[in-house]
Amino acid sequence: MDDEMLSLKKNKTWELVELPKGRKVIRCKCVYAKKEGVNDASVVRFKARLVAKGYAQKEGINYNEIFCPVVKHSSIQILLALVAQFDLELVQLDVKTAFLHENLSEEINIRQPKCDLDKRRLGYVFIMAKGPICWRSILQSTVALSTTEAEYMAMAEAIKEAIWMLGLIEDLGVNQHKLDVYCDSQSAIYLAKYQVHHARTKHIDVRYHFVREVIVEDDICINKIAMVDNPADMLTKVVGISKFKHDLNLVHVKQV
Question: Residue 115, SS3?
Fold first, then answer.
């Protein structure tokens, strides 16, 4: 299902909006299936699709005449026969998520899928004297409606911890003027540095906007970091062994 959601978002299949007045919303659901291999029946692929419950629509009201061409089995047989008769070479190809590449002429309102409403995992790690001193990996308390919003909320949680540590360091008599916080989302950094108010950000809880005040007071410096060099990835998502070892090296963790 993660691959399906990634393809939908990569192709910009939808845009999150408030439901317009007088519009009917169409529900959707996730369909799961198992696909066995051709040569080896023991090889099973798990597939997932997000489908709209189109039977709730009415022709002439929600959509006009539709047509979806489907190949006939006899057409494939004729093609294979011609290839064999004239000793041709046959090349087969497939298009991943082919239905996502065509634009719709109608405007359709679909309820946001539940699999896209799951709480995201936030994580951060603080480094001091070339070693990790604080790290955390938890589910966010509220559901984020976009990746930018999720990154912005995670940034706020990390900055709260940074402010506490900054106060502790100063109480210990160490003069620490500013802490550097790194984030791999440029849009979240822009949202934190500039007081942008529009339809896509007005719903964000005000308790997260203290980040802007901290930046104005120049206590925290927000910096952009490349995704490949962000060690917090190992706390928020499944990473490969090479990426995991790279993240450990970034926080100076070695095997003894």
Answer: helix
| pLDDT, block means (10 residues), the chain with 256 residues | 71 75 82 72 72 72 66 85 90 73 74 64 86 85 70 85 86 82 85 64 60 80 89 87 91 82
Assess if residue 243 is contained within a domain: yes
Q: How many domains does the chain have?
A: 2
Q: Is residue 54 part of a domain?
A: yes
Give the domain extent around 124: 119-250
Beta pairing class for 220-224 and 179-183: parallel
Nearest residue to 124 (alpha-carbon basis) of 160, 148, 149: 160
CATH number at residue 130: 3.30.420
Contact 28, 51 (CB under 8 A): yes
